[in-house]
Amino acid sequence: MGAFDPAKHPKWPAGAPDSQGGQFRPRDSDGSAEGTNDSGALLADATAPSVLGRDGIPDNLPAHVKDGLEFLESKINEPQNAQYWPFYQNWKVRYDDGSVDYGAGKHPLAITNYSPGGSLTTFYQDVTRDWTPEKYRFFVAHEFAHTLPEKCRDATRRTGTECE
Q: From the first residue on, what is the mean pLDDT of each consecutive set of 10 residues in the chain (164 residues)?
């Protein structure tokens, strides 16, 4: 196994918005880690996430992911699911046509970083598969579940880390 290469696997700097400091972040569209300066401070990001409640569903998402978000929104709009609306409204989503490599050919389809102010989900190019619409809808709902406070509590119990 080779040495860790921060250009291939950039991380969010300490103090990054949405409490994702130290976690892996998507590479820039050219595959570089140019989103930070020498001190690790975050620079302006041309691929800023879309806040669903403010910006709507991003145009650059694959069609099946858009469908999954539209389906999820229709379900959250049902009166019995009203408690989830604020989490959906503040959910930040983005698409990265790059790929994160966890070694041995393992690539995530999406990564969701929990934050009480609005979690961030990055969908990656590997999400393009030949699944049924129902499976994509389940996948998107699964990522949404990572935005809920219960997910933070579960992660705290497993890892011993604090949620902000």
A: 54 58 56 40 52 86 91 93 92 84 72 86 81 92 90 56 50
Environment class of residue 90 by beta-carbon count within 10 Å: exposed (0-12), middle (13-18) or buried (19+)?
middle
The 3-state DSSP class for residue 113 equals strand
7 occurs within a structural domain: no
Q: Which of 117, 57, 114, 113 is nearest to 86 (CA)?
A: 117
Supply the pTM of this predicted model.
0.63
- How far, in Å, CA of 26 to CA of 70, rounded? 24
- Find the CATH number of the domain harbouring 115: 3.30.2010
Residues in the chain: 164
Asked if 40 and 13 touch (Cβ cutoff 8 Å), the reply is: yes
